[in-house]
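Case study 2.
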Amino acid sequence: MVNHFLKFSDIAPEEIQPILDRAIALKSGATSNALVGKSVAILFEKPSLRTKLSFWVGTEKLGGSPVHFAPEEIGLGKREPVADVAQVMSRMSDIAVIRTFEQSTIEEFAKNASIPVINALTDAEHPCQALADTQTITEQLGSVKGANVAFIGDGNNVAVSLGYAVAGLGGHLTVASPDGYTVPAEKLEGANTYGAAAAGSMKQVTSPKEAVANADIVYTDVWTSMGQEAETAKRLVDFDGYQVNPELLDQASANVKFMHDLPAHPGEEISHGLLYDSRSVAFDQAENRMWTQAALMEKLIRS
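Prediction:
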């Protein structure tokens, strides 16, 4: 049976920490030849900086060869059926990394693939980001277990995957979102079930001040994600009062750290200059995409 990473819960809670430990070891200078003589097909239907760069360089650090396809080169389900692309890539590469829109697209791809498939972002989840996020929290706090994490903004794919990751490691995630933008109830229930054995939790509130009270980590994401550009004007109104700024961070724990998965829109979800505040670890978080994804690919190719 081929192992895929299509949603965060595709790995068991007890598998998370070993991946993070391996990522930290690789970051500290450990080496791996897990992908020597192997190729990783990177197929993106959305623009990318961190995801493309981190998978490309991460593949090379494991001795492998990355092959990148831009959105106009494939056309999943349009120029060519998803199943056909999956079959071809399975014959010529060893891992497929897919960044697309609908979760159903990557699910169909994986169903027809005979190689590991990694979700590099869909509208439903961003599981690789959550691995990097929890590595960053581990580096800052020593452990995710018992940590209080506040996510301010849209209850989107990033928030969902983060909820599973934090809860699965025994941490506590509180998401503050305006009405109409909350995390779907079934995702909250799923994350709490996933994290039950580790005593982790995820909950939804509407007040940013409530979310950040006693928070060790304050995290935000853009208010308007790729594919939602037509909603920008409405979202700017709906998210008024949800900006993360120094004043909001001051209401969290004394040693709070600020996280953002980038790209950021200063003046919207964050105040100008916040990425460079002494409490920000956003660029550590960005770098950690490379290390956790390398550890993940090593695990998948050897399983």
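The chain is about 40% helix and 15% strand.
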